[in-house]
Structure formats: structure tokens, C-alpha cells
Design goal:
Number of strands: 8
Distance between the termini: 16 Å
Structural class: alpha+beta
CATH architecture: Roll
CATH superfamily: 2,3-Dihydroxybiphenyl 1,2-Dioxygenase, domain 1
Radius of gyration: 15 Å
Bound molecules: cobalt (II) ion
Strand content: 25-35%
Largest sheet: 8 strands, mixed
Order of helices and strands: EHEEEHEHEEE
Amino acid sequence: MLGDIDHIGLAVADVETALHLWRDILGLEVTHDESVPEQGTRVIFLNGRNAEIELLVPLGPETPVGKFLAKRGPGMHHICFVVEDLEAAMAEAKARGLELIDEEPRIGAKGKRLAFVHPKSAHGVLIELCELPEK
Ligand code: CO
């Protein structure tokens, strides 16, 4: 059901110190920087070797990432796996007893179609399923 890890999402409280770490100290390159107002998040991608790093910067305290930061502080937010057919993967996840946050696919950064599996049905890990846009 799951393909490669596409990216690892990190909740970021301060974009400059996060970029300093991932870009300047650890040497990754910023490949994409986009605000997704529907999700209340600025999304910055850096090119890891096998998977990307996605920095999630809340556009305000009442956004999902803003609330996540208030509750848990900066750090790991989610793991994203590529799936070939998002609707099929969502149906399969549900059939196997997982709870989805998204009943319908949503559109994320870079126009990718994605859906989240609820962390309470995944041992506390927020799992993102995404479809590659070139499909
Ligand atoms: Co993501």
C-alpha cells in the first residue's frame, strides 16, 4: 500500500532558525517555498537525499500547525508516503481499520493530492498519503 517516503514534515516555530539548521548547518537546499492559506501553513521543502524535509510554518496561532506547536512544541509532525492511487489507498486504509482525517483528498503544496491518517489510529504518528503530481 505504501510506496517511498516522500518527505518528513517538521513543525517549525521560527523559520529563520529552522532554515539556519537545515540549510546552513546541515547543508540541504531549499527547493520550494509556498504558502497554502487553506491549510494555514507556509511550506518550505528542502532536498534530502532519499526524502525531502518539509518545514511547516504556521500562518497564525489558530491554524492546525499553530495549535500543534502550542501543544507539543517544534519537531516531528508527520511522515508522508507516496501512494499510486490516493482514493484506493484511502479506501484500503479505512477497510483495514485506520481512521482518516480527510474524507476527501485535499490539495497541498506543489498541487499534490494528499490525505492524512489520524495519529490516534497510528500509534501517535500522523501519516500523510500523497500522490505524485505526474501521475
Ligand atoms: Co507533508
